[in-house]
Amino acid sequence: MLLDPLRAVTDFSFYRQVPKKTFGATVGYIAYVALIYAAVAMLAVHLRVKPLIAEAVDWASKSFPTLTLADGKLTTTPPSDLPIEVRNPRIPELLVVIDANRTAPLAPAEMMDSKAQVYLTQSTAYLFNPANRKMEVYDLAAAKNPEPVVVDAESFRKLGGVFSAALDPATFACAWAYSFIRGHFWALIYSIVALLLNSFLAGGLQFEQLYKIAVYAQTPAIVLQIVAIIVWKPIPFDFLLALLLVGVYLWRAIRQNGTQPREEIEGPAVP
DSSP of 25-68, one letter per residue? Predict the structure, then answer.
């Protein structure tokens, strides 16, 4: 079974064995391919995203003043008489304004004029969504914290460390679940395509046999998805290319099984 993905891509004669496999074996195959997909996704995220997290943490720890929320009031260290604007060079459209001296409410029009997505005043946090021009308002004075809440450089480093530590297992789990569910879904879709090809080729295969073939015939499409993760960019026309590839594999697999005696196709189930 360990070499089944390789055989499913490189050896059309392998598909003569597929109709004899049990449904448990096909589910196990989808789970196994999902493991490969998840491992590649985790490695790609580890190599490409973790450095960005470290860079963001380093930037935030140097760019933000120390923020202290005590008794419903926000203060900054060092104090500033003017609003403090913080903008990440990698995301120039995201502007954070900190004005701990301001007590007056902020109107939506003023928020739009400032071009800020986050605006912190002495007792209120404003979040603005440019897409729908909606502003959310959070009353900091309503926070009943027994002790002052301090956000400083060390806080950013701790938060970055937690996020970085959780990134690999979270990526692996999400990628595996996504690939496992997707594998079953597309196997069903491709089995319907196989039904049409089976009718056209007079293959004489039953739906359950075509479903098993579809499980393995979608492997080239999964390989495409893995390549897209490795190069970290979408492949042009990937959906059409995947459909074409799987269609070719289904056609060849049905032709392979059509050349065998019926008792050989429906022989004892193999894992």
Answer: HHHHHHHHHHHHHHHHHHHHHHHHTHHHHHHHHHHHHHHSPEEE
Rg (CA), the chain: 28
pLDDT digits (tens, 9 = 90+) for 74-111: 999 989 888 999 998 888 888 999 999 999 998 888 88
Q: How far apart are CA 71 and CA 161, in angstroms?
A: 29
Distance CA 41, CA 39 (A): 5
262 vs 5: CA distance, rounded Å: 26
* Whether 77 contacts 65, CB under 8 Å: yes
Round to whole Å and give the CA distance between 57 and 78: 20
29 CB-near residues (< 8 Å, 6+ apart): 1, 4, 215, 216
How does pLDDT run across 5-28, given as a tens digit for each residue? 999 999 999 999 999 999 999 999
DSSP 8-state class, residue 129: E
CA distance 259 to 168: 47
Side-chain-side CA neighbours of residue 49 (13 Å):
17
In 3D space, the residue among 149, 152, 136 whose CA is nearest the CA of residue 61 turns out to be 152
How far apart, in whole angstroms, are the C-alpha atoms of residue 38 and residue 188?
21
The answer to whether 101 and 89 are in contact (CB under 8 A) is no
Whole-model pTM: value is 0.82
State the Cα–Cα distance between residues 270 and 26, nearest whole angstrom: 11
* Upstream peptide bond of 78 is cis (omega within 30 degrees of 0): yes
What is the β-pairing status of strands 91-98 and 118-120? parallel
How does DSSP classify residue 21? B
CB distance 114 to 120 below 8 Å: no
Tokens of 87: 């903008």
Amino acid identity for residue 109 in this structure? A
